[in-house]
Amino acid sequence: MNQPIGIFDSGVGGLTVTKEVMRQLPDEDIVYFGDMARVPYGNKSRDAIIRFSRQIYRFLRTQDVKAIVIACNTASAIALEVLRDEVDIPMIGVIRPGAVAAAEMTRNKHIGIIGTQTTIRSRIYNEYLREIDPEIMIVSKACPLFVPLVEEGLLEDRVTEDIASRYLHEMKEYEIDALILGCTHYPLLSHTIQRVMGEDVRLVNPAFETAKSLKELLAENNLLKTDGSPARYRYYVSDGKDRFARFADQTLNCMVSVDAVHEINIEEY
Asked: What value does the mean pLDDT of the chain take?
């Protein structure tokens, strides 16, 4: 099946997942949508997140995608199961793969979760982790300022370090040894988060496991690309295409040049 994979996020965070998909599935075409006009999703209502996700799904279907990755923890927590009941193509999120990775990484069964307010309130990571191992102790913390800091490009700024220290200091009291970066924006702050938490805490980036799950899903459904043509990547946003292009070049780390970003009115879908 030589159709593209659709990947979407509230902004640039999903590029961390896209980068891993490019690495593990180098032949596959990708259509990425970043909802830059409405970022962040973490403080939006459940109904709004579901409405946004439905609009993006309808847009991605116009691009003839064969599968969709919701590369946003908030949308995965709120909209994934709703959309799965409504759509006719395979769709995965980033939360279950992240929970599986954390359960495999922890040595003392003390796991921390950071994410947006909506993701943390949903307790969906807690449910998956308890399903895997009921003995796991879970500490969760909403970090709502991390997304706007990433979107503004303040990845190594002093203000980011100060906010990370304020958010994370109490987690250190629980002796966690694995910390789930429960928002796809957060891996872009991994250096800062690691400094605050210390080297004994392993950071869990769900991107690797999500790409691995996607590869398995495509294989199971006979959807892997087979024509041998070079991979093609297309990028769409609801606003801020120039800012997105600059950030994408930085995030993808020269894996591929972001030559063109197309701005669309997502409210039309």
From this structure: 93
- Is 254 annotated in the active site? no
In terms of domains, do 125 and 200 share one? yes
CATH of the domain at 30: 3.40.50.1860
Cα 88 to Cα 103: distance, rounded to the nearest angstrom: 31
Structural domain ending residue among the three candidates 191, 206, 221: 206
Catalytic one among 95, 180, 183, 203?
A: 183
Question: Does the annotation mark 72 as catalytic?
Answer: yes
Q: How many CB atoms lie within 10 A of CB 87?
A: 15
| pTM confidence score | 0.89
> Confidence band (pLDDT; 50, 70, 90) for 254?
low
pLDDT digits (tens, 9 = 90+) for 212-249: 999 999 999 999 998 889 999 999 999 999 889 888 88
The single residue of 67, 72, 113, 114 carrying the catalytic annotation is 72
